DNA sequence: TTTTATTTGCGTATTTCTTACGCATTGCAC
DNA sequence: GTGCAATGCGTAAGAAATACGCAAATAAAA
């Protein structure tokens, strides 16, 4: 590679994270409001440019922390966005990360110097976003649907235990269809990913239900 | 992003393709011999640096063509290699592409100005490669194993039709285990991905077998 | 207070998919 | 010819997915 060739100049790398959470059976995505050029004032996915001495995973966590105060997320790459014109100033390669976390485990979302606002948005009410971030969100959701049964990606969602009815809501919402509650329970218990904690929880208007830990 | 900040300077993007083919029931990977710095004289995956006005998919096909003469491969990103020190000169982000093609559909492999040699290597006899390309190959193979049953990735392997015994060899080799020939046939026919062509083919030493098209 | 509706949780029957394996036929090697 | 491996069809047992009945808990409506 000839470093003096202008064809190789002015390329950057963007990392962005589509951070999902589940709230009352609704799927939310974390967005931040941009306060600098380009796309000032528009909502966007948390993320930013990677330093030249920085691993992309580290960059993703650094940008997430800087813009929202959230630390150490174990996210996975779900896609790469390689269109050279996806950013206006210069070529920015886009790396899309995805994770699902427990919102209540985050004490607060920090609105840093770098953002005017940060908040969770229902997946059905996402505004027009900066860059190609709307496309990123929909691709991430597709990926989530494919991955939801083969585990892993939901482990961090309920660090303090979960009931089967709660999991039922999450799966139904992600997959966009109503599963049979009785067969859903059977499959989960059969898959040996739930550990009985001997505890129960009682929500208003419902029967009390057992709390499990996801292994 | 502050373009004058040295933290953002000297970043490049590498695309590399792990191009698999199947030969006599063996899995081969296409490698090229480097003839310029760094790693002169060492074998490597086809690929190279992305131009700043170029889509990454286009860059992958351009580099593949320049170095081997192979055109228009429909490859998928299987992983991103984001370690900032994976290339010696400067930070090069690595994008790993994967595809499986029919070797016989390629008239010849061109040894261009840019490479001293280009050849297929059996997956069990891959030499020490440039950069982190050995890791790329093994990650691509993992990805291939995961994806082999849910179709798509093998479609281009047999453009002129295929027999079930031929597919049996491919699947067995990729998955690294001997499947039951009779159940393998049943599953393929049941999955409705094979279209009977009413033709048969006869290989020396074997019974004649039906030719199917993969849909 | 009684009734009604909803939710959790367990059980059972049916169907579909996977796995194991028997066997006739073809074709090469000897 | 005999022997052996490959193709291709079939059947049976086992595992997994699906459909649905039903009892107990609970809250809200009558």
Question: What is the compact description of this entry?
Answer:
The first copy, chain A, has 215 residues and is of the alpha+beta class. Chain A has helices at 56-68, 133-147, 164-175, 181-190; strands spanning 11-23, 26-34, 43-44, 47-49, 76-81, 91-100, 115-122, 194-202, 208-214.
Oligomer: homodimer
Order of helices and strands of chain A: EEEEHEEEHHHEE
What is the helix content of chain A? Answer: 10-25%
Could you give me the name of the CATH homologous superfamily of the largest domain in chain A? Nucleoside Triphosphate Pyrophosphohydrolase
Q: What's the N-to-C terminus distance of chain A?
A: 47 Å
Structural class of chain A: alpha+beta
Question: How would you characterize this protein structure?
Answer:
The structure is a homodimer of 215-residue chains. Chain A is an alpha+beta fold. The first copy, chain A, folds into 2 domains: 6-149, Nucleoside Triphosphate Pyrophosphohydrolase (Alpha-Beta Complex); 158-214, Arc Repressor Mutant, subunit A (Orthogonal Bundle). Chain A contains 4 helices and 9 strands; from the N terminus they run ββββαβββαααββ. Chain A has helices at residues 56-68, 133-147, 164-175, 181-190, and strands at 11-23, 26-34, 43-44, 47-49, 76-81, 91-100, 115-122, 194-202, 208-214. In chain A, the strands form 2 sheets. In chain A, strands 1, 2, 3, 4, 5, 6 and 7 form a 7-stranded mixed beta sheet that branches. Chain A has a two-stranded antiparallel sheet with strand order 8-9. The termini of chain A are far apart. At the A-B interface, strand 1, helix 1, strand 5 and strand 6 of A face strand 1, helix 1, strand 5 and strand 6 of B. Chain A binds a DNA duplex (30 and 30 nucleotides) through helix 4 and strand 9.
């Amino acid at each position: 590679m000839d470093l003096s060739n202008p064809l190789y100049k002015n390329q950057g790398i963007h990392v962005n994270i589509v951070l999902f959470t589940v709230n009352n059976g609704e799927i939310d995505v974390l967005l931040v409001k941009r306060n600098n050029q380009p796309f000032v004032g528009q909502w966007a996915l948390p993320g930013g440019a990677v330093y030249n001495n920085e691993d992309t995973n580290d960059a993703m966590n650094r940008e997430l922390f800087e813009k929202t105060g959230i630390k150490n997320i174990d996210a996975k790459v779900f896609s790469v966005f390689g269109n050279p014109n996806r950013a206006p100033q210069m070529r920015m390669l886009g790396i899309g990360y995805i994770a699902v976390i427990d919102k209540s485990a985050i004490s607060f979302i920090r609105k840093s110097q770098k953002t005017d606002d940060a908040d969770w948005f229902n997946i059905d009410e996402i505004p027009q976003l900066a860059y190609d971030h709307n496309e990123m969100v929909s691709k991430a959701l597709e990926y989530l649907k494919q991955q939801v049964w083969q585990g892993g990606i939901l482990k961090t969602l309920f660090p303090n235990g979960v009931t089967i009815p709660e999991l039922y809501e999450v799966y139904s919402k992600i997959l966009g269809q109503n599963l049979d509650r009785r067969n859903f329970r059977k499959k989960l218990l059969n898959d040996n990913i739930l550990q009985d904690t001997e505890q129960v929880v009682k929500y208003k208007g419902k029967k009390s239900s057992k709390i499990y830990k996801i292994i």
